[in-house]
Amino acid sequence: MSIPDERDLVSPAASGHGRHIPPASLARLTVYLRVLGTMMTEGIERVSSEELAEAAGVNSPKLRKDLSYLGSYGTRGVGYDVPYLSGQISAALGLTLDWRVAIVGAGHLGRALAGYPGFGSRGFEVVALFDADQMAVGQEVGWLRISPVEAMESILEKTRANMAVLAVPAEAAQGMCDRLVDAGITSILSFAPVVLQVPAEVQIRKVDMATELQILAYHAQRAQVSALATDAQARMLR
Ligand SMILES: NC(=O)c1ccc[n+]([C@@H]2O[C@H](COP(=O)([O-])OP(=O)(O)OC[C@H]3O[C@@H](n4cnc5c(N)ncnc54)[C@H](O)[C@@H]3O)[C@@H](O)[C@H]2O)c1
């Protein structure tokens, strides 16, 4: 993901509890939600913060801090009610809303996203897929048919899309973003490697795998340096 900024924070209204949720906590909340979902399918009704933290791969003080943003503190000795906590996180993340996603750009990425069956169970229904290439228009991807971008506004209205994913080349991204905004879309996820300008009321997130890889490389290099330093220290003490 791109470097977090103010826009990466959930608005007080969206958090449902009047507090901003920092981006790192927000990311972990989605992990807790997935873990709680698995617990519910296994019929688990209560979970301690230690158990939930372990299943999510975090420490329990961090988990308790994250959940405190929702006003959820659990009950000492009893833990958290699994379905209730899951509902609370879903509400804070806005997942109780009906998210209907349109994908703009049906190339490698757009088709892979449109064909992925895992979004529905996480609350996101892909309702339309657009492309500017007449050769692509009409082709089927999963259960969707690629629509011509010329008809985007009317199809967005007809499908009641309220979220969009931009998977077009960088040079087409701002123009398509403007059209989405003009059509009333206020939540946009962009894969295009450009900075997009949107009005303040529009939420935009950028997915940048190259940035993620650079961050990963930085941490891997730090871990290597620190392992070498520990080695050298151990040799000196021998
Ligand atoms: N963030 C990441 O990690 C990541 C990874 C891969 C690709 N990307 C970016 O995602 C975008 C898509 O990548 P891809 O590999 O799918 O490219 P692609 O060339 O396979 O697909 C792009 C598609 O967009 C269509 N298109 C062009 N202009 C359009 C317009 N105005 N309206 C609608 N459709 C239009 C093209 O016809 C094509 O089908 C690119 O900007 C790429 O740089 C980002």
From TrEMBL:
It holds the Pfam family Put_DNA-bind_N. Its main location: cytoplasm. Residues 31-70 bind DNA. Keywords: Cytoplasm, DNA-binding, NAD, Repressor, Transcription, Transcription regulation. NAD(+) binds at residues 105-110. It is found in: Cytoplasm. Residues 94-195 form the CoA-binding domain. The keyword Transcription regulation applies. InterPro entries: CoA-bd, NAD(P)-bd_dom_sf, Rex_actinobacterial-type, Rex_DNA-bd_C_dom, Tscrpt_rep_Rex, WH-like_DNA-bd_sf, WH_DNA-bd_sf. Belongs to the transcriptional regulatory Rex family. Modulates transcription in response to changes in cellular NADH/NAD(+) redox state. PANTHER family: REDOX-SENSING TRANSCRIPTIONAL REPRESSOR REX, REDOX-SENSING TRANSCRIPTIONAL REPRESSOR REX 1. NCBIfam families: PRK05472.2-1, PRK05472.2-2, PRK05472.2-3, PRK05472.2-4, PRK05472.2-5. Homodimer. This is Redox-sensing transcriptional repressor Rex. It comes from Arthrobacter pullicola.
